[in-house]
């Protein structure tokens, strides 16, 4: 079965950087998309970024474009989210998720999820 394990969250000051990792296991992901979502307290889960496992095509939410970079290491079955110029409004639990064939920003369309990692940005 598919297992996703996030790591790399923490507390950082505004303007700082963090890199999140998501280690995937349980199947081959050649026709899959890996995505990062986040959820702040009292808010809905929102799309952050996605990447095609095979081609490396990337997608970003407007709110993070130019600050966050999603990448993958196929040999390690790991996806990363490099977050720069962090803002207090980036504070949330960050989740990785995976789905086959077609990317989407709708979290309900992703069948597999990690447990989440907390990112807190202080002002």
Q: What is the averaged pLDDT score?
A: 96
State the low-pLDDT regions, or none.
Answer: none
Radius of gyration: 13 Å
Largest sheet: 7 strands, mixed
The portion of residues assigned to helices is under 10%
Strand residues, percent:
over 45%
Question: What does this 3D model show about the protein?
Answer:
The protein has strands spanning 3-7, 10-13, 18-25, 32-39, 46-52, 58-60, 68-73, 78-83, 92-100, 112-113, 117-122. The protein is mostly beta strands and 123 residues long. A hairpin with a 6-residue loop joins strand 4 and strand 5. The protein is globular and about 40 Å long. The N and C termini lie far apart (40 Å).
Features:
mainly beta; seven-stranded mixed β-sheet; 123 residues; four-stranded antiparallel β-sheet
Summed up, what is this model?
The protein has 123 residues and is an all-beta fold. The protein contains no helices and 11 strands. The strands form 2 sheets. Strands 2, 4, 5, 6, 9, 10 and 11 form a 7-stranded mixed beta sheet that branches. Strands 1-3-8-7 form a 4-stranded antiparallel beta sheet, with no helix packed on it.
Fold blueprint:
Layout lengths: L2 E5 L2 E4 L4 E8 L6 E8 L6 E7 L5 E3 L7 E6 L4 E6 L8 E9 L11 E2 L3 E6 L1
Parallel strand pairs: 2-11
Antiparallel strand pairs: 1-3, 3-8, 4-5, 4-9, 5-6, 7-8, 9-10, 9-11
